[in-house]
Amino acid sequence: MTGSQPVCRLMALLAMTAATLSGCAVFEGGSYGPQTPTAVVTGDLTFQERVTLPPDSVAMVDLTSGGDSRVLAEQRLNLDERQLPVSFSLKLPAANYVRGVDYVLRASVLQKGRTLWVSEPMDVRADHTVQEVGQVMLHPFRQSEFNAKLVCGDHSALVGLVQNEDQDLMRLTLDDRQFDLRPSVSASGSRYVALGLPATEVWLKGDKALVTVRNQIWPDCDVVNDNAAAPKSPLMGDMWVVDDIDGEMIDSSRATLTFQEDGRLNGHASCNVFNTTYTQPSAGALTIAKGAATMMACSPELMEQEQRFLEILQGVQTFEIDETGELVLTDGEDRQIVAHR
């Protein structure tokens, strides 16, 4: 009898342990208990036409809630030495995943904080834990002809009207973010609400404005009309036709330059079309950023001329327009591009 007591006590202890464990979560695969599913949104970033991605460019993809535009998931992709299409995969945390709810996906390509391409907002309904959205098309980031600046305490923004099919939209630009807003009914003033983002809006009331961005209400804004800004640069206006690229140019070839008022520069590089931006730090000074170009193939001679043209263009430091109206761009190695109107 005495020898059987330890066995009985052991059996009782095992029974109690089993009963206790039956009320606990089971450890499986590194987590306790059943897990709420996490949604993964996948797709590919692409362009309508082939382009060369500039060095140091990155792609940003984010998923926001449709109601208050909170960023719920985002991914940063280094595009160095990569060609589009580029695949992305956004993991929506379990706490933010609600089956059947609409989310908004956006993508952009930036270089050193400057936006080069953007996508249109895309509605994504998370009906499955893995949601494939297919191709997300990127298009060049274009600023409107801005006619006002909003100064709101420590915040500032640019606004202007753009034409979209048969409706005028207001374009709101904040650093590297751009929103198109449609007119909305208001008791007074002019109210514009972001497409698909009711938590982002601009309400103009004379020389004052109320701005809400991603559900954050900004301080009251002053509207500063920029139409009477600094005089236009002599570079702006009609297209410049290139006559000479570092002392030579192939007969019947064509290269052009068009300086836009909003800081964009585009044209024909001999074979391909290019787009970039420019700044004028001081009188006679000119800086041209590395840009993007289409990727058509031409004769070896034209391709060599185009490469030389773009290299000089990206190294330009000064410009001069002489008494005959001829434009001379000079880079840091004293190489020149000469053009006329």
TrEMBL record:
This is Heat shock protein HslJ. Residues 152-215 form the C-type lysozyme inhibitor domain. Pfam families: META, MliC, YscW. Residues 234-338 form the DUF306 domain. Keywords: Lipoprotein, Membrane, Palmitate, Signal, Stress response. Residues 1-27 form the signal peptide. Coiled coil: none annotated. It comes from the Bacteria. The keyword Signal applies. The keyword Membrane applies. Gene3D superfamilies: 2.40.128.200, 2.40.128.270. The lineage of its organism: Bacteria, Pseudomonadati, Pseudomonadota, Gammaproteobacteria, Moraxellales.
